Amino acid sequence: MKIDGKSTRTIWLAEDGQGVEIIDQTRLPHELVTVRLETLADAAHAIKAMLVRGAPLIGATAAYGMALTARANASDMALTVAYNILHATRPTAINLKWALDEMIKALAGVPEDKRAEVAYARAAEIADEDVAINSAIGDNGLDLLHDIWARRRAEGAERLNVLTHCNAGWLATVDWGTAIAPIYKAFDAGMPIHVWVDETRPRNQGASLTARELNWHGVPHTVIADNTGGHLMQHGMVDCVIVGTDRVTRNGDVCNKIGTYLKALAAADNNVPFYVALPSPTIDWSVADGVKEIPIEERDATEQTHMTGKAADGSIVTVQVVPDGSAAGNWGFDVTPARLVTGLITERGVCAASPEGLSELFPERG
């Protein structure tokens, strides 16, 4: 994607071929700041503190974290320690484990003095593969949007209204995004598309990140409070919902940012199609029941009790929004049962959120 006309990814190898650079997403939307990662500790901090976030980007960052480890110490022990440290940073996103497993697989049997070179090459491949996968997701989702728009235009609609929750755009991946990739492709193709952007409390990834990247790209959008979506659906103001996900079970259950389940319930009650866009590494074939089996990350309560924004004088300030002494809970994700999902948009096509649907696209997993 482009920022001020310059093609930009969320993570890239530094010019010296050793360090790794990222966009610090905790500084968005008001500041565009890049950070250089030099060590395993830097990569782990970037993931845990959410300088990078979104399942695909977390995976790519973890892969480069293994490469940074191999540059410093390529022994089996060092790689095992690095694997465990990185794996513990974010428990919900399955792409993290997938990328770490891919790195270990690539380095198995490689002499220690060659491991750094192999690790950097595999990390770069994982990043490039993510871009290609997300572009294909965009193409497959575009076909769906064309069909929905054809029907709505015949009914006299002037634009296609898509609602999304959290951030599943290019800032959540290496490039293109998952749920937002079809929207970019539709906009670039000339479709009159408009996006309802859930603010996505408590970290406001919709208001700060999705809105920021849609603004950069010029896509018409409106930021709404998290509780507004149901009202819009009742009044025919949402034509479809597209969200991303951090983990999908083999039965089609979807784990995504907290609040996604409520959007799916509202969509089902109002006959609004509810789609989930995901790259295949987000599918956890070892899990069947998402509600019972997927670990749900509980984050620091200060994300709920405090908010950061730009003051009237342009300064960035953090303020407390709850009374002193009030406890706060901060679950990061929820699970939407497969029965509420209209379809899964993957790089291989669109399928039903069911074991049979996933098996059709991924027969090798059957």
UniProtKB/TrEMBL annotation:
It holds the Pfam family IF-2B. The keyword Amino-acid biosynthesis applies. It catalyses: 5-deoxy-alpha-D-ribose 1-phosphate = 5-deoxy-D-ribulose 1-phosphate; 5-(methylsulfanyl)-alpha-D-ribose 1-phosphate = 5-(methylsulfanyl)-D-ribulose 1-phosphate. Substrate binds at R53, G54, A55, R90, Q205, N256, K257. Transmembrane segments: none annotated. The active site is at D246. Keywords: Amino-acid biosynthesis, Isomerase, Methionine biosynthesis. The record marks C166 as: Transition state stabilizer. GO terms for molecular function: S-methyl-5-thioribose-1-phosphate isomerase activity. GO terms for biological process: L-methionine salvage from methylthioadenosine. Pathway: Amino-acid biosynthesis; L-methionine biosynthesis via salvage pathway; L-methionine from S-methyl-5-thio-alpha-D-ribose 1-phosphate: step 1/6. InterPro entries: IF-2B-related, IF-M1Pi, IF_2B-like_C, Initiation_fac_2B_a/b/d, M1Pi_N, NagB/RpiA_transferase-like. Its EC number is 5.3.1.23. Belongs to the EIF-2B alpha/beta/delta subunits family. MtnA subfamily. Catalyzes the interconversion of methylthioribose-1-phosphate (MTR-1-P) into methylthioribulose-1-phosphate (MTRu-1-P). Also catalyzes the interconversion of 5-deoxyribose 1-phosphate and 5-deoxyribulose 1-phosphate. Part of a bifunctional DHAP-shunt salvage pathway for SAM by-products. This is Methylthioribose-1-phosphate isomerase.
